[in-house]
Specification:
The complex is a heterodimer of chains A (about 650) and B (about 290). With about 650 residues, chain A is an alpha+beta fold. Chain A folds into 4 domains: about 90 residues; about 140 residues, Rossmann fold; about 160 residues, no CATH class; about 200 residues, Class I glutamine amidotransferase (GATase) domain (Rossmann fold, 3-Layer(aba) Sandwich), CATH 3.40.50. Chain A is built from 15 helices and 34 strands. In chain A, the strands form 8 sheets. In chain A, strands 18-17-19-20-27-26-25 form a 7-stranded mixed β-sheet. With about 290 residues, chain B is α/β, with parallel strands linked by helices. Chain B folds into 2 domains: about 230 residues, Rossmann fold, CATH 3.40.50; about 30 residues, no CATH class. Helices cover about 40% and strands about 15% of the residues of chain B. Chain B contains 9 helices and 9 strands. In chain B, the strands form 3 sheets. Chain B has a 5-stranded parallel β-sheet, with helices on both faces. In chain B, strands 1-2 form a two-stranded antiparallel ribbon. In chain B, helix 2 packs across helix 4 and helix 6 runs parallel beside helix 8. Classes of the chains: A alpha+beta (about 650), B alpha/beta (about 290). At the A-B interface, strand 3 of A face strand 7, strand 8 and helix 8 of B. Strand 3 of chain A pairs parallel with strand 7 of chain B, so a sheet runs across the interface.
Chain lengths: ~650, ~290
């Protein structure tokens, strides 16, 4: 490295070519200018005359200067000029370049590659052996092996970030063949990963370690598995920058993939341990939500910034259970008819007996005037595990003599029920009271023409007031809800058909059912529980490290246990299927930043101010190209001027 | 006669030719005027044949011989002596002169807008000479047409000179004993000209060949890289990197061509002269007149 003032040259001997510029000057002057056209009758006499000597006309000095400038710029660019080069000595001995190649490195991958290439070039200039270690967890590469810079650079060019987290090797095995002393340049992705401390300690023991933290913030997106799926947006580093928005992407009604919604982050984000995190509820209409195929952080190209939508984001599965002994009556009299109409298109509907629908893992079970009977115990277990049971009253429930002891009711019911507005009753049908502002039905408009003629009444109870979700104008409950284990039971005190009420005919019925179904937890097909019938998950669509769809063709099915461990080599982030179930393996998740000097004991942290100087080669080449373009224009102008001059001379 | 782009006009078809001739004839009065002014330079004298024949001038009295018609006897002269005399006149047969001004693309060119094109100068010289000859009682026409005398023939001659096309007249246009006036640059292939001069020699045609050149063609004042284009389509381009260095070779070729033309003219009884458009035309006219008078 030759340094002249603030300017350094990586290959200064190339500057010797500048000495050839006078020769080039002479050569360029000898370049023939474009001939001008002259109409001349004496041409007939000139056939066969040869030029005695190819003496050129003088090229204008400014054109020559332009060409010389272009050549000088090219020569200087080839000499590798660097503005304010790194003044530190290049070091001696082998150099190991460690590149964190997990998804977190993807957004700034070009910068990482450029930095690594600069280090390798510099080592090449100093004649040091170079090794490149990609910490992407792909085994089979063996130990660190030092070789020429060309090999390392070729591997660096081919390297890509992986759709899983950075994985550090076992230091003992990785350094088995390494020399006793070497320096290390570590291009970190800014996150802590298992075995990082060991790896750092082992490298520090062999020589100086320089750590390059990422230039920009690391961001990840994850789906929380609560009842209501929500997105957690995390950001490590990048002080001062706000959280970006999240885009929901999926096919539009024409089947074209496009942005369906843009979820803006909440202005107030919580910061813990240097990680800024915000929770974004997935608050979208079901029609939109069911179409989402992926959620991605806006402007972040990494696998960790993408959440693929699986069953958890998808719509709920609702099981309708009617009276097993239902007669073949008119459809309009069946309670299930109104439920089916209300739920179709908003949820996946499963119908059948209790024994049939429970194994289908529904999110909601609706019992329309039906008694659990023999399956009561299984249903109670399902509810206690977190299911939502919705029951509708009816004549059969009212007539049941086991009503008093039914455990699957939110409130104790009085046998018999109440008839208001019947032919033999004094009262008139009751309308609905406005909904409680806190309940699940908050905000729904109550139509005035919805009336209830008959209902089942609860026994007075201290808990009763807290369990009422909706009441009639006289204060008697219409909908009550009670917990059972992790789940809950909702009871409509009237029928699901029009026998006791005209509620099922109203749009309110649809909205109420919608709210209830949305409040149900989604029975997540948790990857952690290996299914006996599907011990393997088959990749359907996978991502590459940049979060772009990649080819899943060559991947083997992943064992359930490995699947539960998250994305790994051989199990990239993507959508996996086992039987009917589809589960997403998402790379993003909790972030453990390793950005500060305290995280890297014994290593020198490279800051932006100390980063190697600005390489001017590209700018000089651009200058040369510009000069050549100007030269072309100038030559064309000269030729044009000559031609018009010749015309003026020979014309008329 | 030239397009602004500098390319000479292509050879026109018959209709276009007629249109062109009419357009050119619009300039005919001017040409006639200029030619008349030029022709006034030359004062034609009588050029008798120095032998008895038909003519206006008295030649000699001779004694009547048997067989002479009585009407031919000059009685006034015969009354002064015993013998009968016949009055003879000097034979004055008018000459027929055929004109040709080459109309090639190369002729329609000038090296300087201030100078006339070679063709314009050639036509002026041809018509002026025609006027001189007409005044002298000769018959003139463009080669290929019947020569006629009289003042009105001047206009026809000028019109035909302007409308003529081609470098040389047809070989069939020559008549024995005619005078032939060829005006052109003679820079093209000399073979057709050689054939024409051989035929002229065979038919006893005498006359003059005048090579009209632009000063640019005579001095070759070019330098630098130049692509020379012949004005006609048939002439190939010539690209040179250093035109100044070609001057010597070019001038040598031009001298060779003139020598060749001179040989051809000598061999066929024609006079060969040169003229450049920067010179006054009267000089060339004088030369032509004298060349024809011999």
């Amino acid at each position: 490295m030759l340094t002249i003032g603030p300017l350094g040259f990586a290959a200064p001997w190339l500057l010797a070519a500048l000495g050839a510029l006078p020769l080039l000057w002479w050569l360029l002057r000898a370049l023939p200018p474009a001939p001008r056209d002259v109409v001349f009758p004496g041409t007939a006499l000139m056939a066969g005359l040869a030029d005695p000597s190819a003496l050129a006309r003088r090229t204008p000095w400014w054109l020559l200067a332009l060409r010389m400038l272009a050549l000088a710029a090219v020569i200087a660019a080839m000499a590798g000029p660097v503005w304010r080069p790194d003044p530190r000595p290049a070091g001696v001995g082998p150099l190991l370049v460690v590149v964190d190649a997990g998804w977190a490195a993807a957004p700034d991958w070009a910068g990482v590659q450029a930095r690594a290439r600069a280090a390798i070039d510099r080592a090449e200039g100093a004649g040091r052996p170079v090794a490149l270690w990609l910490a992407d967890g792909q085994d089979g590469r063996g130990a660190v092996r030092f070789g020429t810079a060309a090999e390392a650079e070729a591997r660096l060019r081919a390297a890509l970030p992986q759709p899983w987290a950075t994985r550090h090797p076992d230091p003992v095995a990785a350094l088995a063949d390494a020399p006793a002393a070497f320096d290390t340049l570590w291009l970190s992705d800014g996150l802590d990963h298992p075995r990082r401390a060991d790896w750092l300690a082992a490298l520090s023991a062999r020589g100086a370690v320089t750590v390059v933290p990422p230039a920009r913030a690391v961001r990840s997106l994850a789906l929380t598995g609560d009842d209501q799926p929500a997105l957690v947006l995390r950001q490590a580093g990048g002080a001062g920058t706000g959280l970006p928005a999240v885009l929901a992407i999926g096919p539009d009604p024409q089947g074209v993939q496009r942005q369906l919604a843009r979820l803006a982050p909440p202005p107030a984000a919580t910061a813990t341990d240097g990680v800024l995190s915000a929770t974004l509820p997935l608050d979208l209409p079901p029609e939109l939500r069911n179409r989402i195929t992926r959620l991605a952080i806006e402007g972040e190209a990494s696998a960790g910034a993408v959440v693929l939508a699986d069953d958890r984001v998808r719509r709920h599965k609702v099981a309708l259970v009617g009276d097993a002994r239902a007669t073949e009556g008119q459809a309009l009299l069946s309670p299930l008819h109104y439920l089916r109409q209300a739920l179709t298109g908003r949820a996946d509907v499963v119908e059948g007996g209790l024994a049939d629908v429970l194994p289908a893992a529904p999110d909601v079970v609706i019992l329309a005037d039906a008694l659990p009977d023999a399956e009561g115990a299984a249903l109670a277990r399902w509810v206690a595990d977190g299911g939502l049971l919705v029951r509708f009253a009816g004549p059969r429930m009212a007539a049941s003599d086991e009503l008093e002891g039914d455990p699957l009711l939110p409130v104790r019911l009085r046998p018999g029920g109440r008839d208001a507005g019947g032919a033999l009753a004094w009262g008139t049908p009751r309308a609905l009271a406005p909904f409680d502002a806190q309940g699940p039905f908050a905000g729904l408009a109550v139509p005035t023409d919805v009336t209830v003629r008959a209902q089942l009444l609860p026994e007075p109870d201290p808990d009763l007031a807290g369990r009422i979700l909706s009441a009639l104008t006289d204060g008697t409950p219409l909908v009550t809800r009670g917990p059972l284990g992790q789940g809950s039971i909702v009871l409509f005190h009237t029928t699901a058909n029009t026998d006791w009420s005209n509620l099922p005919l109203s749009g309110l019925f649809v909205q109420m059912l919608d709210r209830l179904v949305q409040s149900a937890r989604v029975t997540a097909v948790t990857p952690a529980t290996p299914s006996t019938d599907a011990p393997h998950w088959t990749p359907q669509a996978v991502l590459d490290g940049f979060g772009r769809p990649a080819d899943a063709g060559g991947l083997a099915p992943v064992a359930a246990a490995a699947f539960a461990a998250g994305p790994a080599p051989g199990a990239p982030a993507g959508i996996y299927a086992a039987g009917e179930r589809r589960a997403a393996l998402n790379a993003g998740g909790a972030l453990v930043p390793a950005l500060g000097a305290a995280d890297w004991p014994g290593a020198a942290l490279e800051s932006a101010a100390r980063a190697p100087g600005l390489a001017l080669g590209g700018w000089l080449l651009a200058l040369a190209a510009l000069a050549l373009a100007l030269d072309t224009l100038g030559s064309a102008w000269l030729a044009g001027g000559r031609r018009t001059g010749a015309r003026a001379g020979a014309g008329a | 006669m030239r397009t602004p782009g500098g390319a000479p006009l292509a050879r026109p078809g018959p209709a276009a030719l007629r249109a062109g001739a009419e357009a050119a004839a619009a300039g005919l009065p001017g040409l006639l005027l200029a030619a008349e002014r030029l022709a006034s330079v030359v004062d034609t004298g009588a050029h008798g044949l120095r032998l008895a024949g038909t003519g206006d001038e008295f030649w000699q009295y001779r004694a009547a011989q048997p067989g002479d018609p009585a009407a031919s006897i000059d009685w006034r002269r015969s009354a002064r002596s015993d013998a009968a005399f016949v009055r003879e006149r000097e034979m004055q047969s008018p000459q027929a002169a055929a004109f040709w001004v080459a109309a090639t693309p190369g002729m329609d060119w000038t090296g300087d807008p201030a100078r006339p094109t070679k063709q314009a100068r050639g036509a002026l010289l041809g018509l002026a000479l025609g006027l001189v000859l007409l005044r002298g009682g000769e018959r003139v026409a463009v080669a290929g047409r019947a020569p006629r005398g009289g003042r009105t023939q001047a206009e026809a001659l000028g019109r035909d000179l302007i409308a003529a096309t081609g470098a040389l007249p047809d070989a069939g246009a020559l008549r024995p004993g005619q005078r032939l006036v060829l005006i052109g640059d003679f820079l093209d292939d000399p073979a057709p000209l050689a054939a024409l001069t051989r035929q002229a020699a065979a038919q006893g045609v005498r006359g003059a060949m005048l090579q009209v050149l632009d000063p640019v063609e005579e001095t070759f004042p070019f330098q630098g890289a130049i692509r020379f284009r012949g004005p006609g389509v048939a002439v190939a381009d010539h690209l040179t990197r250093d035109a100044a260095a070609l001057r010597g070779a070019y001038l040598a070729r031009l001298a060779d061509r003139r020598a060749l033309l001179g040989q051809m003219a000598d061999a066929s009884g024609l006079h060969f002269g040169t003229h450049d458009t920067a010179q006054p035309p009267a000089q060339a006219l004088m030369w032509l007149y004298q060349a024809l008078a011999e």
